[in-house]
């Protein structure tokens, strides 16, 4: 049976899955043409930075269900034979989901996922950036209320379909599994240079200037840590 693409997104209290919480979860099942959208009480304060980005306040989630309820509803929405697609899935959204399910003591089934950010970086190396809203502009997709989960989901759906054209989902999954020949610096002074050859002083400079605080650079940070260039 062909896998059903389900696009999803999370909004959170902050950037760190081990200490922050999900405050909004949304998804769109393209085959069944139905949506999932839920505010979630994180049982902790939302950082002002997150409020400024997604405009979800502590008052808005005060009476919302906790993740224990939201997680069960989300699994029911997903059903069977699906593939989850998110922008920066591997470094952000999925780690948050995993931690939330673990804290709620709900078994998270094995899932097939696609990280559309990794696809964009792999197959659109001509672009200087691969953030979702930048890709939206590149593909001439109409703007909506960015950084609310369901709005980002619908933009992601349009961007992803433009990027992959008519490739079957199974082919996309297979192509993403192919090992990269060499990780390269995606932007800046050393753009195109193998990451292992980027000077440690430049990596330190990026850290001091907040480059790794941006969610879209989480995967780059992870690779630099693996190479011992960043601690």
Describe the structure.
The protein is an alpha/beta fold. 42% of the residues lie in helices and 14% in strands. α4 links the parallel β4 and β5. The chain is globular. The mean pLDDT is 92.
Fraction of residues in β-strands: 5-15%
Q: Catalogue the unreliable spans.
A: none
Distance between the termini: 44 Å
Find the CATH superfamily of the largest domain: Ribonuclease H-like superfamily/Ribonuclease H
The CATH C-level class name of the largest domain: Alpha Beta
Q: Helical stretch count?
A: 10
Can you give the mean pLDDT? 92
Order of helices and strands: EEEHHHEHEHHHHHH
Sheet/helix structural class: alpha/beta
Oligomer: single chain
Number of strands: 5
CATH topology of the largest domain: Nucleotidyltransferase, domain 5
Main beta sheet, described?
5 strands, mixed
User: In order across it, which strands form the biggest sheet?
Assistant: 3-2-1-4-5
Using only CA atoms, what is the Rg?
Answer: 18 Å
Provide the domain count.
2
Shape: globular
Using the 3D structure, state the CATH architecture of the largest domain: 2-Layer Sandwich
Write the layout of secondary structure elements.
Layout: E1 4-12, E2 22-29, E3 34-39, H1 48-54, H2 58-61, H3 67-78, E4 82-86, H4 89-103, E5 112-115, H5 116-123, H6 132-138, H7 149-164, H8 169-177, H9 200-208, H10 218-226
Parallel strand pairs: 1-4, 4-5
Antiparallel strand pairs: 1-2, 2-3
């Amino acid at each position: 049976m062909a896998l059903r693409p389900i696009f999803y997104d999370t909004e959170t209290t902050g950037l760190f899955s081990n200490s922050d919480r999900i405050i909004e979860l949304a998804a769109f099942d393209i085959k069944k043409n139905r949506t999932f959208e839920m505010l979630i009480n994180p049982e902790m304060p939302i950082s002002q930075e997150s409020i400024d980005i997604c405009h979800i306040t502590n008052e808005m989630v005060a009476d919302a269900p906790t993740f224990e309820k939201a997680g069960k509803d989300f699994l029911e929405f997903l059903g069977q034979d699906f593939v989850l697609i998110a922008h920066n899935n591997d470094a952000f959204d999925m780690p948050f989901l995993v931690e939330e399910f673990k804290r709620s003591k709900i078994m998270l089934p094995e899932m097939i996922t696609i990280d559309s950010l990794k696809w964009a970086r792999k197959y659109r190396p001509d672009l200087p950036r691969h953030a979702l809203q930048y890709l939206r502009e590149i593909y001439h997709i109409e703007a909506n209320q960015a950084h609310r989960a369901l709005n980002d989901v619908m933009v992601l759906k349009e961007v992803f379909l433009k990027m992959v054209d008519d490739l079957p989902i199974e082919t996309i999954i297979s192509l993403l599994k192919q090992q990269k020949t060499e990780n390269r610096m995606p932007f800046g002074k050393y753009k195109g240079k193998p990451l292992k050859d980027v000077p440690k002083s430049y990596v330190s400079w990026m850290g001091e200037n907040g480059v790794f605080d941006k969610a879209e650079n989480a995967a780059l940070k992870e690779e630099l840590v693996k190479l011992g260039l960043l601690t």
